[in-house]
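Notes from hallway chat w/ T.B., transcribed later so I don't forget. T.B. wanted the structure written out for a chain they're using in a teaching module, and asked if we could keep both sequence and structure tokens in one place. Agreed to drop them here.
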Amino acid sequence: MHRHDFSLDRKLSHTLALTVASAILTLALSLTAYAQTETVIYNFTAGHDGHTPQAGVVFDAAGNLYGTTIIGGTHNFGTVFELSPVAGGGWTETVIHSFTGGFDGGDPFAALTLDAAGNLYGITEVGGAHDNGTVFEFSPVSGGGWHETVLHSFTGGLDGQDPLGSLVFDAAGNLYGTAANGGAHGHGNIFELSPTSSGPWSETVLHSFTGGTDGGDPVSSLVFDAAGNLYGTTEGGGIAADCSFAGRNGCGVVFELSPVSGGWHETVIHAFHGTDGAFPLAGLAFDAAGNLYGDTFEGGTLTDCPTYYGCGVVFELSPVAGGGWHESVIHAFTGSSDGAIPVATPAVDSLGNVYGTAELGGDTTVNGCNPNGCGVVFEYSPASGGGWTQTILHPFAPVPDGSIPSSTPVFDSSGNLYGTTRGAGAFGQGTVFEITP
């Protein structure tokens, strides 16, 4: 079996201080104080309950939360867990499944996806019939418990390997996702899984990335627009010269995949240059007006994070009349109180506010964290007259708080925000947290 922390691999390898012209779009940005209350609703123990949740959580209709841990559980290949609210306060954790690293999979990196019937869908990076990862389904069993079905075991060939992003449904019940490696050119692909009348699911590769101008190595989730087009990011590829200083064949791209007669057509709608962002690990989110929002793991003002190629950015892509898209940098992180190194897909509310997490930054005075802080949960709100206002909803501190938030925030019906940290907490193994406005 093979295993690794995909995002940590990239952070630990980027250790050179580099100087590049940092002509970032200047926006009216102000930092406001946080006035929210954070509560840790579960501390992982590194035992049977798992530890190191890389992805966020999802709600079912009854208010239960579901998520994954990439390590721990009975066999140390991660878990699927449920958190149920308790009358009078608190939450109870139930381990739905402990992965073995064998045919059932192992190391589930991504958040789960729920269907209308309450079935859970997700991916594992390793395991399966060929040890190249799986797509799985967990279905509730009458009388209690859950049943796992492996919908697809990746071969490592044309069908891909190492799936890392969350899955998304279309209106017909087909699942779509990304594989970071494999495919026709070894740089990953976009795949579709369709249910069949006989029971098994059938996989179709919609696009295999070349690692060149079309992008390469997709590690994030996809999102549909109203017309049925798919959008996503790749960590690599794009314009080769732009991130050659980092030893990369490009800084990554944002792409659109459109259905055409007999297949799908890929269009790169933005290639990153470094100063406007680099190496997006996160997916994208739409607002009501059709603008796309995302973040990049690195890039921005490259001198602000000397041990990285910049501290990362939050960006907006707006459709242009007549065709094309225009990118704006909402914020280039500095590595101080505003945060640094965002890796999770942002969330957008009905008012157009953008929420997300950054793994570092925040309160740089607390002990037990990276010198750059334990990470933050942030909000960007459109400002009157243009630009954006940043609010830090919570800066993390390690104990009894969490550290290294790597998940997409989700809201309950009351406006409370939930997420995970993959470090610290009471046992140093990660947390699930709630932020109450």
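Follow-up for T.B.: The CA atoms of residues 374 and 396 lie 5 Å apart. Might be a good example for the class.
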